[in-house]
Structure formats: C-alpha cells, structure tokens
Amino acid sequence: MAAAAAARRAASLLPLLLSSPSRARLPHRQTLTLTPLLRPHGLYSHSGPKPTSSAAFSASAGAAASNGSAPAERTRELQLYNTKSRRKELFQPRVPGGEVGMYVCGVTPYDDSHIGHARAYVAFDVLYRYLLYLDHKVRYVRNFTDIDDKIIARANQLGEDPFSLSKRYSDDFLSDMADLHCLPPSVEPRVSDHIDQIINMIKQILDNGCAYIIGGDVYFSVENFPEYGELSGRKLDDNRAGERVAVDERKKNPADFALWKAAKDGEPGWDSPWGLGRPGWHIECSAMSAHYLGHSFDIHGGGEDLVFPHHENEIAQSRAACCDSSISYWIHNGFVNVNSQKMSKSLGNFVTIRKVTELYHPLALRIFLLGTHYRSPINYSIEQLNVASDRLYYTYQTLQDCEENCRQHQSNAGDPLPVNTTNFIQKLHDEFEASMSDDLHTSVALAAVSEPLKVMNDLLHTRKGKKQEKRLESLSAMEEKIRAVLSVLGLLPSSYYDALQQLREKALRRASMTEDQVLQKIEERTSARKAKQYEKSDEIRKELAAVGIALMDGPEGTTWRPSVPLSEQGLVAST
Known about the structure:
Layout: H1 2-13, E1 24-25, H2 54-65, E2 79-82, E3 87-90, E4 99-104, H3 115-133, E5 137-142, H4 149-158, H5 162-179, H6 195-207, E6 211-214, E7 217-220, E8 257-262, E9 269-270, E10 277-279, H7 283-293, E11 296-303, H8 307-321, E12 326-333, E13 336-338, E14 341-342, H9 353-357, H10 362-370, E15 378-379, H11 382-408, H12 419-437, H13 442-448, H14 450-461, H15 463-466, H16 471-489, H17 496-511, H18 515-530, H19 534-546, E16 549-554, E17 557-562, H20 566-573
Parallel strand pairs: 4-5, 4-11, 11-12, 13-15
Antiparallel strand pairs: 1-9, 2-3, 6-7, 7-8, 8-10, 13-14, 16-17
Helix pairs in contact: 1-11, 1-14, 2-12, 4-5, 6-7, 6-8, 7-8, 10-11, 11-14, 11-16, 11-17, 12-13, 12-16, 14-16, 18-19
C-alpha cells in the first residue's frame, strides 16, 4: 500500500511539469589538420536506441486493437511551423520517398555549452527522431564554427592555440549531447575543413554582382539583393550598424556584412584571391549546407536568435551564389529565459549543461526541456528541474517494477488482452501521434503517458489491480508502448535499473548526503517509532523530506526515494 501511495503522489505531479583539406597559415605553427571528433564513453555517453518506427508502433497498436478495440489509424501527416511563411505547413519532402535534408546551425565552441544550446539541439533531435519514426531517410548536418572572433579572443586570453581550444570544447559539446541522448548527426563538418567551398561560393557571389572588395575584405551588398528581409520581415532601414551588424565606415551600406575578413597580425588565416584571411560568420553555413545537401533542401533550423541576421544573410548569399537555392522549411526554437531574460553567454546569465548535470540526471534536463513546446520560451528554474527529475524517477520506477513482475511470473502472451487495456494502448498511440504530428507538441505527448503509468501502478500495487484478469499481459503490453514513446522522445535509458540508481545518486548529491547517512537516519527513525517517540520520528522524516529524500514505509521496512524538496511541494501544487 505504501508503494501505491507513493506512486499516486508521483502521478499527481505529472501534469504539473507541463570535406577539402584546409590551407590555413597559422602564426608560429604548421597547418593543423583536426582529427574526427570522438564520442567519449562514460556514465551517460550513450544516446539511446534508435527510435521505434511508426510501422512497428502502429503494428503493435493494431495487434492490441485486434484483441478488442478499433483498428489503429494510419500515421498522421506531419505539420511543421515555417518561420518564413509564419504558419504551420504540411511537411512534404522535396524528393518523395527520397532522403530528407536537414541542416541545423551548430555551436561556436569557445566555452562550455549552456542549456540554451541543450534546448535547441534536443528540439532538433526530437524532429530527427520523429522523421525516422515516420520512416523517412534523413541526412542531418550540424556544423562546428571552429574559427571565429570569439574563439580567437578566448584563445588569446588563455594563451592557447585557437584550433586546440575549439577542438577541446567541440569534444565537450559532443559529450554533453550524448549525455542528453541526442543522436549523432549524419555529418558534423567544421569550417576549417571547408575553406575551398567557402572561397568558391564567395567568388560566385562576386561574379553575380552581389558583393564587393575593400582591401582584403569582401562584403555582401544587401542593396543588390531585393528580397533581403523576407525571412525576418525586417526592412532594410531597420538594419542599423552596431545592432548585430558590424560597424565599418568603408561599407556601401551599414547593413552589408562580411563574406571574407582580412587576417590581423597573429590570427590564423587562409590564402585567398583577396589575400590572407578567414570566412565571415554567415558564409560558412551556406557553403557547407550546399556541399552536403545541395543548394536546395528540406529543413534549415536553429535558435530563434538566428532568424536575423544569420539566417537572413544565409538566404541572401545562397541565392546570390545560386539563383535556384531554396529551403522548404525554416524552423526555429524559442529561448531559455532566466528571470524573463534570454539566457546567453554574452549576457553572462547562462547555466552550463555540465553545471546542471553535476546535480541532475541529463534526462531530467531533457524531460524538463520537452515539457514546453519547442517554439515557446521556457523559464529555467531549479524547482522545475526537481519536478522533472521526480517525474523521470516515477516513470522509470513504474517500468522497472513492471519488468520485474513480468520476469518473475509466467504470462500467456498469446491470449487476448482485456478491452480496457487495448483501449489504453490505442489511446496512447492516437494521442502520441496526434501531438507529435502537430508541430512536435512534446508536452502533450508526455502527458499522454500519464494515464497508462497510473493504470500500471494500480495493476502492480493495489489489491484490486493485482486481481485483474490478464494482469501481467496488460502490464507487458503497456510497457512496450510506453517504451516506444520514450524512444522517440529520446528518454529511453539502456536500463531502467541503472537510470534509477543514477537518479538516486544525483538526489544524494543535491542533499549533500551519502546513502549510509540516509540509512542511518532511517534506523534512528525506526528506533524512535518502536520507542513510541513519534514526534522525533516525524522530525526525521521532515528533515529528509526538506532535502528531497522521501521515506516510504512498507511491510518489509522503510525505503527511500528521491522527491521534490518539501519546501517546493506547495509551490508545485499551486502551479
């Protein structure tokens, strides 16, 4: 009964969360050839199993339905919000039945990545997974801007080679992404390996009369591209110098932007027709996306802050280089806010992924991010992370209990399931696909799992549930469907047991306690109860609850589990 009560308490919280060689000439050193990035193998280094396909999910739902409910519907058509058209559109690949091309702007690796980066790449990982679930073949490209003003400045500050610094932070970024269960992209190109492609594109833009040379710099001429501003909706007069546009009195128009920048003394550079220099920020993505996906492809994504100027400039320079260049869907995720202000390194209000995952399981951060629609802003708070972590523990504990029960008892897999079980499975199938196909409403998809989890806990822990016909078969079937949902959302661990242990370890770290200390408190409380010192017993329970350790009394004694700290439970309940 204690386990059932704990399960019901946790369930009550669920709705509340809602490649050419580089020719760089480097000062005092030889040309550096970067080796492919390695993905370290650690506690959370796996990115989880590939998502279940819609065919498999639909087939299993259909098999369940054949035992008593209506047949599963055909997979719904995917609708995505297109920033360019400012409306949701039916997703139709440029090549029906062919490969979907998706390019997502990557990081400039000059520091540890923050949870604003996590928000972006988790969002596009979900899109990638859902496209695979819908049986699309996807070529997913995500770049590294491994040479940039910020990298050079940070390298000079630390007395480190800029390429060495960017590689170190690139490796750390990939480790963070693996921790968050983001699947590796198909290709992860670096700017420094694609200088030839960049130079060739700049030449084409110059030949087409959309750029000009000043000294060793090459600038794009926005006045020669009448469609400039079509993505962001900004007028040319809005683009004043100094507001995300470099100030340079030599430019023909203050809004003109650099395609190639002459190298300064002591900076790395590459030979070009315009002298020693390096690419401007925007041209790299146009050149690399065209190299790997062609001048026209399906999806281009990034954070909302990239709409202008980065993606606006990408469109201009790509079209100036090739008039047939076209991107079908421009997709952007919302910001992570701290005190209603966008989180960013430049504002100094950022929280790194590693800072969070020191105290929280990486998948607690992932489920926190998925609890808000990807286009909406999300406010970061420790309280919401605690709720997310509690939700994750409840989910995995339920599924672990289910696995153990089914393993210990023989089930009759061939027998028909009860009608109410097939109804729950069909409902989960329908709600999951309806929400995900409606512009990836992950919060609704997560909510759809709540009812099956509650039913499973009733079957596992209540007297009435334990007597239900085909109990084990129902548990096994629902676990299978929930597993499929978690797989697509990137929340399926390699082992429920291991994930639960990791969640417990993080909870102990947040509480600044060891498990031996918790067990000692449990012994003290047990002794106090035997001595009828109930006030002291309650005091110990509250002391542990205050730091996020919940005690559960049962026939076999008292155990503990992570929980939302006592002081925050009232806040959560009022959310």
